[in-house]
Design goal:
alpha/beta, 635 residues, 20% strand, 9-stranded mixed beta sheet, 19 helices, 18 strands
């Protein structure tokens, strides 16, 4: 049921992607804003500073008709990008240049990643091939969620694709700086992961005049239908804040020449997806009057090159970068340069290479500070809440109440009476909300709302350990209770949710807010309070920020930061603020900590104190000691 909902949402995204081509006027009018959205989803909006590259040639191989230069440059200060540059041995005039981007093998020393740039270098091009992060001589790590469950990358708004694209953009800078390169004739191609980066770069940088992705074309729907998301590292995906699919990316490449090369037997990029994607993009090119600039070439071959694919690729570059339509008759050679000959650093990589920690430093964050006066707090609160709603939570608040499947009396133990709502969310997930009513409670008794913990196996008369006389609503949000997921599917689901422009914790907040639309009208006089403990504490914070009807927040053992793999992920939330700062946005609503106020949350007490509401942040020894906050609760 839960996976079916994810699949349905993925289909909706892909089916709507460029379903109707943009008119030339619309395409031109919103091109700039769409490109900014694309760069935002890569984590490069605004673009990083173009600092000195310190490009260095560490060696050269003379191979008669072509030369290999071993180079490195710094895409950011101290972040090294190694590569090999292939060029003709004799150059009489500036040549077109091709940036070749590698997939997930050994980088530039791998056989096809030598052979293809070498072909270009032997046929009148300057070709630069780069090592991707973590491969070859490039340091760092790019398989965070798939291998290490580093879901705090999503909270950072970080994908290694953003680094790869920035490295590639700086590589274009380098190529344009060379006297032997015609900087107006630049192309990009690559296989597998390099194919994805070819798509991404051409969409992000208009200097790319010709783009040929190879064996890396599919759709958001395909990743869900076939679970091919399990076969890709993080750099294959953008942070899908705007719910795009590949045709939206292709529309940014138009009207520049785009050839997609694919194998029908590729097990992770299937024909049903790449054919549909290219049909939509070709219609956009037709609308712009340049249908001949967009083509799909395919062969009955698995993931990788075939002679037919290479012939089409080389012919496409010749036609569009050299104005040469003559048939290509010679394929790559079988030469294989010994790996050690191509090493840029000769086995001694830079000791203090910042590429090692690029995931930690690449995405800028706001400088944490506490506004000093109530007007400043109100201004900061308005601006920051608007950004949170726009970037991280644009679809979290339910647009309409969920469909009620069943409401039933669940019995009484003499002290508590339970009522259960079974409801279906807008994306088709059936969930339960359990209301426990003390038999002696007054109509205006507080209603405390809590998230079912993923570890909670008890469902009957299970509620937070509150004092008597308090209503409690426990919501079995998705992936808890009857919809709990085991490790075999949980990692897949969390990655697919990101592809759908969501996260699992964000959907869980949505579920609780949906349950409130059903239950809250039954208690119009009750103060509404949200409780979150441990791993579910962040959920409580954001539920309150998104629903101003929630009058108080109770937190027990809240984590100190989103920048922790064990803490709930919310897309790009750290680009707005970390958890303690975001909690302070609840000002002046009361906040109660069970136990001491954690040190990381001192900013909350500071903000409240600066705004004259210091007593509204309070502590209780245990949850059973909690009582609703008055107008001026004790310290």
């Amino acid at each position: 049921m839960l996976y079916h909902a994810i699949l349905g949402d993925a289909r909706a995204i892909s089916s709507q992607s460029l379903a109707t081509p943009l008119s030339p006027a619309d395409w031109k009018r919103n091109l700039s804003s769409r490109r900014r959205q694309w760069r935002q989803m890569l984590g490069i909006d605004p673009l990083p500073e173009r600092t000195p590259m310190d490009a260095t040639v560490t060696g050269m191989l003379d191979r008669a008709d072509y030369v290999v230069e071993k180079i490195h440059f710094q895409s950011m200060p101290g972040a090294y990008v190694p590569g090999n540059l292939y060029r003709p041995a004799k150059i009489r005039e500036p040549l077109p240049a091709v940036l070749y981007l590698c997939g997930h093998t050994k980088g530039k020393i791998n056989r096809p990643y030598q052979a293809n740039p070498r072909w270009f270098g032997q046929h009148g091009y300057v070709a630069l091939v780069l090592d991707p992060i973590q491969l070859g001589e490039s340091q760092g790590y790019h398989a965070g969620t798939i291998s290490k469950q580093w879901y705090h990358w999503y909270s950072r708004g970080y994908t290694p694709a953003g680094v790869e694209i920035w490295n590639a953009m700086r590589a274009l800078d380098y190529l344009q700086s060379r006297a032997d390169v015609d900087g107006s004739r630049l192309g990009v191609t690559g296989l597998s992961g390099g194919g994805a980066m070819s798509w991404f770069l051409a969409a992000a940088d208009e200097r790319v005049g010709c783009c040929v992705p190879v064996c890396q074309t599919g759709s958001i729907e395909q990743h869900a239908v076939d679970r091919t998301v399990d076969g890709h590292c993080d750099c294959a995906f953008w942070i899908n804040l705007h719910r795009w699919c590949t045709p939206d990316v292709g529309a940014l490449i138009a009207p520049r020449p785009l050839l997609v090369a694919s194998g029908t037997e590729d097990v992770i990029w299937r024909p049903f997806a790449f054919r549909d994607v290219m049909l939509r993009i070709r219609k956009q090119y037709r609308e712009l009057g340049v249908e001949e600039n967009c083509a799909l070439t395919e062969d009955i071959t698995p993931h990788g090159y075939s002679p037919a694919l290479r012939n089409a690729i080389f012919s496409w570059f010749n036609r569009h970068l050299k104005n040469d339509s003559a048939p290509v008759t010679d394929d790559i050679t079988d030469d294989l340069e010994p790996e050690e000959n191509l090493l840029v650093f000769d086995g001694k990589q830079p000791a203090h290479d910042r590429m090692k920690i690029i995931d930690q430093v690449f995405i800028p964050r706001p400088s944490p500070s506490a506004p000093g006066t109530e007007p400043e707090i109100r201004s900061w609160q308005k601006e920051t809440l608007a950004k949170l709603r726009h970037v991280t939570f644009p679809r979290t608040v339910p647009a309409a109440p969920p469909r009620v499947c069943e409401v039933r009396d669940a019995g009484s133990d003499g002290n508590l009476t339970e009522r259960t709502w079974v409801f279906e969310t807008s994306d088709g997930v059936e969930l339960r909300a359990h209301l426990l009513l003390p038999c002696t409670a007054k109509p205006d008794a507080p209603l405390v709302v809590a998230f079912r913990s993923p570890d909670d196996q008890r469902i009957f008369f299970s509620r937070p350990p509150l004092a008597g006389g308090i209503h409690a609503l426990t919501v079995d949000v998705r992936s808890t209770g009857a919809t709990a997921m085991g490790p075999g599917i949980l990692n897949t689901a969390r990655r697919l949710y990101m592809n759908n422009g969501q996260t699992l914790p964000e959907r869980q907040v949505h579920d609780l807010l949906a349950a409130l639309t059903l239950v809250r009208p039954r208690f119009p006089e009750s103060p509404l309070v949200v409780f979150g403990s441990g791993v579910m504490a962040p959920h409580a914070v954001y539920a309150a920020l998104l629903n101003p009807d929630i009058g108080e927040i109770i937190l027990q053992n809240p984590p100190p930061t989103h920048d922790d793999p064990a803490v709930a992920e919310f897309l790009a939330v750290l680009q707005t603020g970390d958890l303690p700062h975001n909690l302070a946005l609840a000002f002046p609503r009361p906040i109660t900590f069970v136990g001491e106020v954690p040190a990381a949350y001192d900013v909350v007490t500071t903000v409240y104190r600066n705004g004259g509401k210091g007593p509204c942040v309070r502590t209780v020894g245990k949850l059973a000691d909690w009582a609703p906050a008055g107008p001026e609760p004790p310290r």
